[in-house]
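quick one before i forget lol
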Amino acid sequence: MPFSAVRGQERAAFILGRFLRKGRIPAAMVFHGPEGVGKTLMAVEFAKALLCRERPMGPQGGCGSCQDCVNADKRIHPDLKLVDARYQASLREEDPSKQKTLRVDTLRHLRKDMELGSMMGAWKVAVIASAHTMEASGANALLKIIEEPPPKTLWILVTSRREHLPATVRSRAFQVPFAPLTAQIVRDVLADRGVEDRRAAALAELCDGSASRALELWEADLPAPALDPFAAPESLPRELTQARSKTELSLYCLEQSVLLRLRRGEIRFDRAAPVLRALGALRRQLQANADPGTILTLAHLQTEGLP
């Protein structure tokens, strides 16, 4: 599909199209912006523009129908490496949920693969998701190949926390900014998944411009805040990891709800600020292995006193 199909990212599409029109592609790029706004999707589309044989270097993207484009969409193209938790887990023979950082051995393996060059005779592209999680030693391994890249190789680092990337890596990569999505675009994305209009509108207001977060909230099927805060933990799954995940989403919803009411002028800042600080403290306690049910109860108690 063309770059324009990545909704709400016209500026990024223009920048990438200009590179293709000029025929000069940098060795490395950083796609940065909020979570869930299309960065990885755009990275794959840009890779397709380089790999496509029917419309090579097309400024609007690949043709979308040739074998190269189809294989790229299926993540099975030999010259496109999508490095994420599943990729690293397959190398280490571990569960994807255990992949908290991007390990140096993963990047060294990838570097050797990239140095072999294209198998199909065009470009070779590595898309590194959550690049800000790479270990310092991994960043050094990556830096070596970015400084002296093999011909027709491209590294795309995708991140929602650009400031956590080493300055040495940032300075050697072209920066492509991505914007938060409008509420209408998020509603459209949810509508495409079959979410009814009223729920889509509510989720779009809570997700802070992130389509993936809106979908995550919808799939979690979180109930409205309970009138009785002590009943809230009863909605949590019994399995601890799932309970933590659902509590994390509930905290996010409560925070966004307070912020939304603050922006609308429904509550004063001096009332909202202590609640937001308390919710932030509860999030940190949850991350430090506090009981999810207790955290959820305390979170609802913090917010129930707001007008």
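fyi The radius of gyration is 22 Å.
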